[in-house]
Amino acid sequence: MEISLLATMYVLAASYAVLSLVRGLLRRRGRCCYMLGYECYKAPEDTKLDTDECVRIILRNRNLNLEDYRFLLKTMARSGIGEDTYGPRLVIEGHEEAPTLPQAHLELDEVFQQTVSKVLASTGLAPSEIDILIVNVSLFSPAPSLTSRIVNHFKLRDDVKTFNLSGMGCSASLVAIHLVQELFKTRDNAVALVVSTESMGSHWYCGKEKSMIISNCLFRMGGCAVLLTNDRARAKDKALMKLGPSVRVHHASHDESYGCCIQEEDEQGHQGFRLTKYLVKAAAQALEANLRILLPRVLPVSELVRYKLTSILASSPFAKRKARKVRGGATLSLNLKSGIDHFCVHPGGKAVIDTVGKGLNLSDYDLEPSRMALHRFGNTSAGGNWYVLGYMEAKKRLKRGDRVLMISLGAGFKSNTCVWEVMRDLERPNVWADSVEDYPAASLDNPFMDKYGRVRTFAVWYEKSKVKSDYCWFLAFRCFSCSSALLNQQCLSKTK
């Protein structure tokens, strides 16, 4: 009797173990996440923000003085942004001081409808096949929600699961990708649509504080729609990439990190987005914390062992004495290229790209896609990473088996990363089709300094002048807005 009972217990235990193993394997299969397609927003040509258009918009702001013009000139000249970026239509038309709700909706509708229609067409999916919809727009959250607006326009199913993310900043797109990855663990054979953009026009800053007006110089219109699935059968022949590890780090508990990139009002009541000098440091700290978690998951063991041994040897007294003799000391870094082939750094600004590149020891070739995306499209907030990925694809860099590291940074302060594995050679036409032949650009300089550098000369004269009359201010406006160097010279001669 005891032997029979013992045998029964062994059988039950073995059965439970087998069932647990099978359940674990099935759950692991459900954790896969494939990218079926993505499409970036291409704005109409009549919304381009070339140098002269930017100046016209600046001159409409009557809160600015000559010193503010000098600051904006220097900022734009060093921004790394070119002549072919796109601005919000309501700003170009001069409605930035009093935007209406219909104008804000129209701005986003253009992005939603173009990107979603294109990604559905390119993948051959119907709107009725979408099971999960996630929309991330940080600064605009109306009721009904923006997800409801897309459901209504494309007539998605009544049982579609929708998520509307706001306040996530430039890192929102990878937050949404991570959310999809988690949702796929609870749902088999699902299709998810992620739409990322930002409401620029209705949040244009009309004040004069330097830390807040910088956002007007950097941010531009853009967005992206991405289709994802965990259906292996659907992904077998259609998938572009497979999602690997993803990591999210949030430093909002650090006061300086929390306040370095924040939406608020200035002293005159003008609402805007404040970017402080601490932003670059906050980005570096958040990214470092993120990569400490991510890299052990993606780099080969041999590289991790090499780095650890090198670190131990470098910490020895003899190595320290030797390092002091060398200017700058010794530098230690992981060889990221041992496990990563391409680097998709968020094109948040020239300083951000350069800082990340220096910290990760990346080459100009590695940073080229991010720099070119910033030059061609500007900082498109949550959509920025996808313009960088599009550049890689347009340049036919992405080959089967390659691994792409996406790095996004945003308000909070947040650092989000993920790794994609390329499933097949990619060379589809995309948003770069009409301009990829012009890149990489020989020079990332823009013509601001060439056209309006005389503002600096005038400002120096004005500060030294003992006669600061309204007529002088009129000359300042003329000096800044006139494209004719001869007229400019005439204006200066009248003041002598």
Query: For the largest beta sheet, what order do the strands appear in spatially?
Result: 3-2-4-5-1-6-11-10-9
**Rg computed from alpha carbons, rounded to a whole number of angstroms:** 26 Å
In what range is the share of β-strand residues?
Answer: 5-15%
Structural class: alpha/beta
Low-confidence stretches: 322-332, 483-496
Q: Into which percent range does the helicity of residues fall?
A: 40-55%
The beta-strand count equals 11
End-to-end distance, in Å?
Answer: 116 Å
Q: Please outline the major beta sheet.
A: 9 strands, mixed
With helices defined by DSSP (H or I, 4 residues minimum), what is the helix count?
20
User: Given the C-alpha coordinates, what overall shape results?
Assistant: globular
Average of pLDDT: 86
Ordered list of secondary-structure elements with their pairings:
Layout: H1 2-30, E1 34-40, H2 51-60, H3 66-77, H4 89-92, H5 101-123, E2 132-136, H6 146-154, E3 161-165, H7 172-183, E4 191-197, H8 210-218, E5 223-229, H9 232-238, E6 241-250, H10 255-259, E7 261-265, E8 271-275, H11 279-298, H12 301-314, H13 317-325, E9 342-345, H14 350-359, H15 364-377, H16 384-394, E10 403-410, E11 414-422, H17 448-452, H18 454-464, H19 470-481, H20 485-494
Parallel strand pairs: 2-3, 2-4, 9-10
Antiparallel strand pairs: 1-5, 1-6, 4-5, 6-11, 7-8, 10-11
Helix pairs in contact: 3-8, 11-14, 14-15, 15-16, 18-19
